[in-house]
Amino acid sequence: MAQILGEFEELVLLMVAAQHDEAYGVSILENLEEELDKKLNISAIHVALKRMEYKGFVNSRFGGITEDRGGRRKKYYIVTALGKRMLDEQYTLRNGIYKRIPKISFG
Amino acid sequence: MHPPKKALAFLRWFCREDYLEEIEGDLTEVFKKQHESSPFIAKWKFAWSVVKYFRPEFMKSLKNYQSNPFDMYNHYVKISIRNLWKNKSYSLLNILGLTAGTVSCLYILLYVQEQYSFDDHHKNAERIFRVITDISTNEKTDRMATISTAILPFIQEDFPEVEEAARVLYRADVNDHLFRVGDKSMYVTEGYYADSTFFNVFTYRFIQGSIRHCLDKPHSMVISSVVAAKLFGEGEAVNQTITMSDNFGTNEYTITGVFDYNYGRSHIRPNFIVNIYSGRFGGFIRKAREWAWDNNAYGYVKLRPGTDAKEFEVKVTNYVSERAKQRLAELGYTKVMHLQPIQEIHVHSNLSSEISKNSNANFLLILIIVSAFIQLIACINFMNLSTARSASRAKEIGIRKSAGAGKTAILWQFLNESILITVISIALALPVLYLLLPYFNIISQYTLSADIFSNPIIWQIVIALIIITGLFAGSYPAFYLSSFKAIEVLKGNFHHRLSAVNLRKGLVVFQFMISVGLIVSVMIIRNQVRFMQDKELGFNKEQKLVIPFRSRDAIRTRIEPFLNAITKLAAVKNATAARNYPGSKIGVDIDLYKTGQTMNDAKLIFADQVDENYFETMEIPLLAGRGFTKADTLGQIIINEAAARVLGISISEAPGENLHTGPAGEASTYPIIGVIKDFNFSSLHEEIKPLFFHYHPGNPNIIVSFQSNDYSTLLANLETAWKQINPQEPFAYFFVDESIQKQYETENTLLRLINSFTILAIFICCLGLFGLAAFKAEQRVKEIGIRKILGATTTSLVALLSKDFLWLVLIACVIITPIAGWAMSRWLQDYAYRISISWWFFVFPATAALLIALVAISFQSIKAAMANPVKNLRAE
């Protein structure tokens, strides 16, 4: 099965990778909101995370209990080797194509 | 500071458990952060997010969802089916009983449902009412289904509340209308004269022609699809001309429409409707001015939405009392008007002047109760057989309980089992009902069409029946079985609890109480019906037949030649022309008073009109005075004993007295010339009422008294005479005793119904008894073996096994006797002439029940008693 990484999924996966071992739903949400400068719904993050977990791009583990969360544990996500390779492939692909852009001024 | 509770509860309900903690945590964290800036937005956002999670990937999977109960249910069904299969004979007894009960129950429920749905199909039926009249004199109040013919158009004119109004009239003494189209002719009954607004009030479905303006012109006629099919076949009926003759004359009518006879069920069931001002009868209606008398019209009003019917009733009463004030005062009447919702007429209205025969709420209630009892008997079979045989399931329950099953789980298991059996029985009952429908319709004298199987109502009834029957039959066994103690049953010391054994006996007693009660009622109804058939009526009803004339011309000119012709026949003893014949209803009554009294003292006396040969033909003896002669055309009357009694005239002095009617000044006078002996001119439900006869030669019904056993020659001769004298009409006749018999149609239907119920009840009881006896014999097989070895005879063993059950049947008989006696004496109250209840009405059913029970048990007892004891004892 060809592994497919959706556009939004890619963003979430990048954030998971960037926040290495510290990424969980709310942190991903907040950082992405900041980067993208627009409001996101937490459910969208969860949908992406669950799909990527199913595809094997991320792994998850439960963390400790914090007061903020009404006694619920955090679920931390970490990018898997497959996920990392996927990111690399995307990066190479985009970079490659980007480099082919002729050096013309768009000013 | 807390997330919205409802949203959270919803999330927890649908969200899969392995995701829930993370999602809930993250949502809460986002909520708290948001809450600091704006609590309101935070709440909405939380709820909105929850909604966004409502998608398949986050939901609990159905497969995983409470997997245990689902599997358990599969398991219960499997175990139930295995158990059914293992005990085939007991299952068969249960299913057979329940199927039989359900078939009758279903039929009755569908029948009753249909009776209650009469007139539901009219658009805005809840706003349509019939206006009825209470007329009170000093003595009594009579409620009539009708109003004075003249009143309704004024009500429509003067009350803004009335959206539409229509009158319907028919002549009670004109039943058959002769229709002629080309060379085809047929008699049609149930024809009505109706205002042109009739179809604005009532909803009909037209097959041909237009429902609008179809009754606008006099002599326009709409006919039912049934009549249309008979007269025109497939062809076009609209614009055809029909010649209609009855004893009101002959007129030509133009057909303007054909309505679907089978659409909806209504208390008005016309074969045809003509414009109200058609023909000679229409002429009378047009001229009607009377506001106190002439209560001959059925008046229907459709009220505007929001009108209070009760208030409107009062207004109409005041209106009528005011406008008819003088007239009512003259007659000494007061009139009160009432509104009857049309949907209630068929079941709840039973007035003497109903437009057609209605059903009766009590009758329907009796049917429901009896069919419920039948179903109950079948349920009891299930209870008894499953508790009696509980020993075989005891180990299973013990093991289930030690494996952790709670009481509720076991309860559900057995309820499932009983519902499964009910479902099987009903699945069998539906096709059986479909096949037997024509026979049921013969028994009930009603046409329940097979269309009901496509009516959604049947499925509602079926589902309700499954649940009620299943739960009822299953509840006791389920409670009983689920209360077994695991340790005791597994140790092997299983005892039937005494309470269960006693309850079982009680239930058998109850079953037989119902059966015996039904037998008693069948016997009493049958005897009452036979009594009414055989009773001396005061005239001779044997060897008499009636030949009706229907068209006015024939009645005017051909009665006398016909009478002359047939009295010459050797077999004919006598013949007379009368307005009424035994079995027909005397429709006319008049207030009469003696000379010296006023209208206030008047007594209501029925009136009949006959020729000079009537009393001789009917063989009614004259007590005083003389009979009619051809000269008695000046209002001379002959009264019966009852009339003499209510008027306070002695029989010997009656001839020579005068009777009067009408207010002083315009009173008519009738001289009495004779008194006849009382005879039952109406059904035996009623005492003999006061009656008088006046002389008139041209009456429509020829009553022929004959002396012959060769009916075919007699009828052939009569027909020949008819054809010579009155060739335009088909020859028709009926026997007087048949006509009398028809008055007891209701009783005969009731008898047929209760009869079938009784057979069914006994059958199901016997199934149960058979099962219990089999079980008892099986249980005592060792005891019987030992007894036999010790020298017991087969007879003594059969007696031993049967005795217990026969006691129960006997107890049932003793308990039910006073109850049935009381109920049936209540039923007999409705008859002025009734049988007295004697002891053998109870002894015979009791004996019958004992014998039938004995047959049901003895098959098993004899089998057990005859068995070779060695076989049964060698096992250990």
Could you please describe the fold and organization of this structure?
Chain A is α+β, with helices and mostly antiparallel strands and 107 residues long. Helix content of chain A is 53%, strand content 14%. Chain A has 4 helices and 2 strands; from the N terminus they run αααββα. In chain A, strand 1 (58-65) and strand 2 (73-79) form a beta hairpin. In chain A, helix 1 packs across helix 3 and helix 2 (25-36) crosses helix 3. The termini of chain A are far apart. Helices cover 53% and strands 16% of the residues of chain B. In chain B, helix 20 (559-567) packs antiparallel against helix 23. Chain B starts with a helix and ends with a helix. The interface between A and B is medium-sized, with 20 and 20 residues.
Topology, pairings included?
The complex is a heterodimer of chains A (107) and B (876).
Chain A: H1 7-18, H2 25-36, H3 42-55, E1 58-65, E2 73-79, H4 81-99
Antiparallel strand pairs in A: 1-2
Chain B: H1 5-14, H2 17-37, H3 39-53, H4 67-86, H5 88-116, E1 128-136, E2 141-144, H6 151-158, E3 162-169, E4 177-181, E5 184-188, E6 191-194, H7 198-201, E7 206-209, E8 220-224, H8 225-232, E9 241-246, E10 249-259, E11 272-275, H9 279-287, E12 298-303, H10 309-323, H11 325-331, E13 334-341, H12 342-348, H13 361-388, H14 391-402, H15 407-444, H16 456-482, H17 486-491, H18 498-534, E14 544-548, H19 552-557, H20 559-567, E15 572-578, E16 589-594, E17 603-610, H21 614-618, E18 622-625, E19 637-640, H22 641-647, E20 658-661, E21 668-676, E22 691-695, E23 701-706, H23 711-725, E24 734-735, H24 736-741, H25 745-779, H26 781-789, H27 794-828, H28 840-866, H29 869-873
Parallel strand pairs in B: 6-11, 8-10, 17-22, 19-21
Antiparallel strand pairs in B: 1-2, 1-12, 1-13, 3-6, 3-12, 4-5, 4-9, 7-10, 8-11, 9-10, 14-23, 14-24, 15-23, 16-17, 16-20, 18-21, 19-22, 20-21
Helix pairs in contact in B: 1-3, 2-3, 4-15, 5-13, 5-15, 5-16, 5-25, 13-16, 13-18, 13-25, 15-16, 18-25, 18-27, 18-28, 20-23, 25-28, 27-28
